[in-house]
Amino acid sequence: MVTRRPPDSESTEPNDPSVEAAFQAAPEEMVAEILEGVLHLSPHPALPHANVASNLGGILLAPFKFGRGGPGGWVILDEPELHLGPRPDKLVPDLAGWRRERLPRAVGDNASAHCDLAPDWACEILSDRTRSRDTGPRMRIYAREGVRHLWLVEPLARTLDIYRLVEGQWVLAQTFSGEERVRVEPFGAIEFELPLLWSE
Question: What is the per-residue pLDDT for 107?
Fold first, then answer.
């Protein structure tokens, strides 16, 4: 079991106005994020990344969002914009999920482009371009905000790492690879075949 202890990323200093202005002015074809006060611009994901994100959404939505073949009780969104903490940090996870009782109306009459409530679960799909950001500042922000579960998916290595937040630290709870059938927290109510994640 590996423990990742996030360094202190608490800051009450607001984002620099020039960083906020650059965030607002980011071209639509780029994904803009502010992590620990630093602006990051990324192109939209490459096809292996997008394929895995779509597959994972397909596996989880029916049983956990709609309650078909599973318990329901979750709001699961693809690439939501999150504004978290006092700066705020502005980040876009590949997928995020909230227990329904915490976010009873994910959309409703809310015309906002972002959500201020930290999810219960987040998933990041790693690439060479984003790995250091996903395993560094992003993990620290999620820990600070009390996100309980984090999945890190490696599309090319075909691995799934499951992290659990324990007393403010990330603990690597499980690692999956190969042809396994898996039950994975917090969605252990169903079993799925890991190769479905990589299927084209």
Answer: 64
pLDDT digits (tens, 9 = 90+) for 167-197: 999 999 999 998 889 999 999 999 999 999 9
User: Of the candidates 145, 140, 122, which has an alpha carbon nearest to the alpha carbon of residue 74?
Assistant: 122
CATH number among 3.30.360.10, 3.20.70.20, 3.10.150.10, 3.90.1570.10, domain 3-198: 3.90.1570.10
Q: Cα–Cα distance between 111 and 139 in angstroms, integer?
A: 28
Distance CA 33, CA 199 (A): 29
Say whether 142 sits in a helix, a strand or coil. helix
Determine how many CB atoms are found less than 10 A away from the CB of residue 38: 13
- Using alpha carbons, select from 143, 140, 136, 162 the residue that is nearest to residue 151: 162
Q: How confident is the model at residue 6, as a pLDDT?
A: 43
Whether the pLDDT of residue 158 is over 90: the answer is yes
- What CA–CA distance (Å, rounded) separates 75 from 60? 10
Query: Where in the chain are the domains?
Result: 3-198
Cβ atoms 173, 185 nearer than 8 A = yes
